[in-house]
Amino acid sequence: MTHEGLGEGAHSSNRWSAFLALRRTGALRAAHHGRRKMRLIILDRDGVINYDSDEFIKSPEEWIPIPGSLEAIARLHRTGYRIVVATNQSGVGRGLLSMDMLARIHARMLDAVRKKGGDIEGIFFCPHRPEEGCECRKPRPGMFYEIADRLKMNLSGVYAVGDSERDIVSARRVLASPVLVRSGKGKQTLKASTELSGVPVFEDLAAFTAALLSNQLEMH
Ligand SMILES: [Mg+2]
Ligand SMILES: [Zn+2]
């Protein structure tokens, strides 16, 4: 397990576990505690926060937010939700980008989120190639277990927003509540997946957020 302090010379060591960038978000969430049972949202990255690319996101310049996603994270943050990211980044294992470059991409993402008034508490990622058979690459649930462990939270009922079937399947394995967005690979997933029974579908993260914050989520 490696902790990466973004902006503090992030480094990597144990590449066989999920990695984490953690920053405490202060008193805001404590002030909002209690009204809902679970105040955590788990977000996939590519196709949910930023545009996905079949060529992989290999540099900060290639990281381009989906319109409305940063504002949505800010809204969730202001409402008292803790937000973490769980993302497969096999480009690292494939040698397409280094751990340092991934840290730079995440620094850009965090900077963009904070400029909108939001925050992300932790970024959990799997750097492995699919054939490595690790426990953290979605659809396996390793990153979700790591989140539960680090945040000392039961993920039962926690919304996990993704655009791929593997996001849905991994969330279900820890009894989180998967949500599909049509952005990124979402439309493809809607056509092809047989795992979507009971999964609410939204246009994008902004639409999910709007529904959640107006208590309309169960209607979908
Ligand atoms: Mg995705
Ligand atoms: Zn992994």
Q: Could you name the CATH homologous superfamily? A: HAD superfamily/HAD-like
- Percentage of residues in strands: 5-15%
Low-confidence stretches: 1-19, 23-37
List the ions, cofactors and other small molecules found in this model.
magnesium ion, zinc ion
CATH class: Alpha Beta
Radius of gyration: 16 Å
H/E order of the elements?
A: EEHEHEHHEHEHEHEH
- Overall 3D form: globular
End-to-end Cα distance: 38 Å
Number of domains: 1
The largest sheet is: 6 strands, parallel
Class from helix and strand fractions: alpha/beta
Helix count, DSSP H or I runs of 4 or more residues: 8
Got a strand count?
8
Q: Give the helix level as a range of percent.
A: 25-40%
Strands of the largest sheet, in order across it? 5-4-3-6-7-8
CATH topology: Rossmann fold
Query: What CATH architecture label applies?
Result: 3-Layer(aba) Sandwich
On the 0 to 100 scale, the average pLDDT is 87
Q: Describe it for me?
A:
The chain has helices at 28-31, 69-79, 90-93, 99-115, 142-151, 165-173, 186-192, 205-213; strands at 2-3, 19-20, 40-43, 82-88, 122-126, 159-162, 177-181, 201-202. With 220 residues, it is an alpha/beta fold. It has one domain: HAD superfamily/HAD-like (Rossmann fold, 3-Layer(aba) Sandwich). The chain has a 6-stranded parallel sheet with strand order 5-4-3-6-7-8, with helices on both faces. The protein has a two-stranded parallel ribbon with strand order 1-2. It is globular, with a radius of gyration of 16 Å. Mean pLDDT is 87; it is low at 1-19 and 23-37. Bound molecules: magnesium ion and zinc ion (ZN).
